[in-house]
Amino acid sequence: MPDAVLASHLYLPRGTLRAEHFDAFTYSLRNGYSGEDYIVETFDESPHFYRFPRGNLGKIRQVFGGEFGLDDNRVSVPLSYPLKFTGKLKDEQRRTLKKWIKYGYGMLEAPARWGKTVWMTALVCKLRQSTLMVAHVEDLCRQLEETIREFTNVNDLEEEHGRKLVGYLEDWSNEEPFPLVTLSTYQRFSVSKRGRKVIKRWKDKFGLVMVDEAHRCSTNLYTEMIGRLNAAYRCGVTATPEKKDQTHVIIEDVLGPVTVRGEGEQLHVEYTWEYTDYPVKPFRSWTFLHNQLADRKTRTKKIAKKIVEDAKDHFVLVTTDRIQHMEDLEAAINKIDPDITVGKLSGRTAKRNKFRKEAKRGEYRVVIAINKIVELGYNIPRWSCFHNTLPMCNQHNWYQRISRIRTPMQPAFDGDDYEKPQPVARVWVDSGHKAVWAYKAIVKKENEKRGFTCLNPERRRTGKRKGLATFEEDDDE
């Protein structure tokens, strides 16, 4: 029986494989922009062996069965300090944690605001492995570190031993990983000065590798980085495991498929269609569309008026893609009511971390934020009203945005007894172009999927000219 080696990848000797082995790691995908099909192979070869991704251990057992003797060279790196979980898991978090440990690989799928970072912290303490936590942006890493410090005894351990045991690593070329948990963006890890030499140096340093927002792990750099690490355990967490471009099959080969799913308490959302009656002019791309809409002062004033109304009863989240639009919205809000405290969420990571703490304390009645930052997973339980001011074309991103207002207030954690009102979302809709209709359809589809309640009549699409759409009231609603 020929030997196979299980390490960062599954290594198999040449001349021992059949066509069905390769077919299991070959995918026909469709380009979301051009509509053309293309082939992706997640294996590669050298003069002496074939190399397959090893994230999906269940698939490896199914495809290769008992045809090969297995030499398991994955590394276990026990924690060098007694890290303890000091928080309390919810029943659903305990159930999924126990089930994931039974599998030993794969992804946790759980809704936004479920408590995935707390779950990740508990898994580190349970497996007791030196851990690398990876995300695509620094903000998420900083939030993960905050959670680890809040729900473990790491601060006491650092004071006792006089050294930092958990932290974000800025430079993999010149700094040592932290003994307990190292946090990093994949860009920091993979594009350091010595590139692959750095990965080779640290590939056996960790017994557990965890990926936050794992659905973003489909880029070549990201999957290559994770795939070169030799940890005994790989785990990803995400609220939206499937991707529109179908590249989630690559992620599943590297991290493993969804092996556990978490159900959790999220608040029900009511929503309204807010029609601007602004006729969209022809445009070349979404960038030009957003510029066009953000520049319309009368449109901005109309949105601001509704925000001020909502701010009487809610802490309001407003999203946009343009800095100048943020400024214009703030000015319009303050002109209507100068007493409303408005905060703008953008800028450098350090400022955003400070801003998040201020928003949690309720220092801003209205927060105007850049969409991409909100989609990172900002958890501000006070937010109960959401205004989406510019159209979009991604259903998963809409779910991420609207989930920001679905977090229940927990006095034990949030520090006060603020009674959160019924969450409501305002979907701002223009007219005059088929892209607007597509945006409206995406939002409606996701809202119906989640069982959200629409509070006002929907307008039907009208207009026969190519690329144009206007709306009128639908009497059937």
Average pLDDT level: 87
Strand order of the largest sheet: 10-11-9-12-13-8-14
CATH evolutionary superfamily of the largest domain: P-loop containing nucleotide triphosphate hydrolases
Proportion of strand residues: 15-25%
- The CATH first-level class of the largest domain comes to Alpha Beta
CATH architecture of the largest domain: 3-Layer(aba) Sandwich
Decide which structural class fits the backbone.
alpha/beta
The low-pLDDT segments are: 464-477
**Percentage of residues in helical conformation:** 25-40%
Report the strand count.
23
Please compute the radius of gyration using only Cα atoms. 24 Å
Description:
- The chain is built from 18 helices and 23 strands.
- By secondary structure, it is of the alpha/beta class.
- It folds into 3 domains: 70 residues, no CATH class; 171 residues, 3-Layer(aba) Sandwich (Rossmann fold), CATH 3.40.50.300; 204 residues, Rossmann fold (3-Layer(aba) Sandwich), CATH 3.40.50.300.
- The strands form 5 sheets. The chain has a 7-stranded parallel beta sheet with strand order 10-11-9-12-13-8-14.
- β5 and β6 form a beta hairpin.
- The protein is globular, with a radius of gyration of 24 Å.
- The protein starts with a strand and ends with a strand.
